Amino acid sequence: MSTKTVAPALAVTDVSKAFAGTQALLDVSFAVTAGRVHALLGGNGSGKSTLIKILAGVHRADPGGSVVVNGTSVAADRLTPGLAREIGLRFVHQNPGLIRDMTVVENVALTNGFSRTRYGGVAWGALRRRTRRLLDRFEIEADPNQQLSELRPADQTMVAVARALEDDQDGLSTLVLDEPTAALPRHEAAFLLEAMRRCASTGHTILFVSHRIDEVLAVSESVTVLRDGVEVLTREAEGLDEQQLVQAIVGRSPRAVYQVPPATSALEACVEVEHLRGGPIHDVSFTARKGEVVGIAGLLGSGRSELLRMIYGAHPRESGDITIEGGPYQANDPSSALRNGVALVPEDRAADGAFLDMSVLENLSIGQLGKFREPLRFRHDLERAAAREDIEKFTVKTQSPSTPLASLSGGNQQKVLLARCLRSAPRVLLLDEPTQGIDVGARADIFAILSEHVARGLTVIIVSSDFEELARVTDRVLILRGGRIVADVPAQSVDAAAITELVYSAPMGASS
Ligand SMILES: Nc1ncnc2c1ncn2[C@@H]1O[C@H](COP(=O)(O)OP(=O)(O)OP(=O)(O)O)[C@@H](O)[C@H]1O
User: Fold this and answer.
1) Quick check: is 348 in a domain?
2) What range defines the domain where residue 160 resides?
3) Atom 17 in ligand 1: which residue has the minimum CA distance?
4) Which terminal residue of the chain, N or C, has fewer Cβ atoms less than 10 Å from its own Cβ?
């Protein structure tokens, strides 16, 4: 039983939103008690982002619903960004608009304003003192003059939290955190969760979106689950276990969720990387065999994404050789990757792989239109049938194949990219944070599909911050630190904690 005040800090009542043809939210109602961390959960496409965007005044709700914040009631269809702020809603979105190359002071001032001297110049001294107080208030270990990139990842997110709450000394606002831990390794996530808990203990109410069930159970005092736009569960977190939550999110019994058999490794080499150098990569060598799933674990800045992009030919290489199935491979650009059977699902899909204005069908077909071309006509019927097949296989939640990719939820966009890559029947599939933003049920589906391809000889190289997942779905994990592989461990002999430890402390120059 909580000893905190019981008045709801936030109450959402009968909020609905239909996009052309899609009922994203239907009469969603729930309340959050003041001073609590309340988790908002749901599978991909269940309506979480839509609800957050309505609260933020970015999407307009359909008429009829209301939002009450600390006793102030507003019709949900009247919320604007200004009004949301006025009634006490604060947001840290998935991409919180932090600039890593700027100092902490500059990052805070960027959104909250620069203190001015009476002559109109920037009052740097006052600004630094103000930022110092803010850092102390949120117990962030940083100096105002430090570059943001020098802070540990969880503290960087806390800077975004602190600046969102700077003007709220009394803890009256409700902070909405959209997947704050998605890009963080587990130990950093745990650190951030602890900071969130401290923040709630000072009175702030936190609405927190995450796909990671364990952390939701660790940090939240109450939860709401959305499924297909409908609120299916709101309750105290106490007494709730992982299976019950997964059941509520997925809507079926949690069989097979996460039980993906590890791929078996064959002996034949597929990708051989020798003395690769370039950018943050300093002399990396390794071999991935046919039908093997190789994980790469490293901290931000370790060169993990650059290594994948170098193999794909999208990051300049200074020296080193790559062979694919014994043949030389130049890796000069993505088209040579395509010719050599190397495919990449990038980390930043919006910037790198997804054509958001184009339809799901077009996104699936890109690069493979030849398959549907006959001497005198283009087989639109076959193209459509193939799209429908992929949509079903990957359980992509879309109204139709012609729906623009932009209107799919993040997780569903990711599934489309993965489906597209697998269509090209690659020999090597490079995955950069493939399950970021992917719900618990869809993860299992994706790995089940991948393991079918792996059983037929596909080689998969995965970079992931989710070390638990790496330990579960890979055959081997390469530990990358400072641009070097410092350890190469069989996945069955490590768990997430061991990988975390290795990422921080593996002896330099171990194996490479
Ligand atoms: N601008 C839009 N136009 C049309 N449909 C949309 C739009 N935005 C969202 N939708 C649809 O509304 C539904 C809910 O999507 P939403 O992005 O809210 O899901 P989500 O729970 O945040 O998913 P994820 O976990 O994958 O981010 C989905 O079916 C999505 O395709």
Assistant:
1) no
2) 100-167
3) 409
4) N
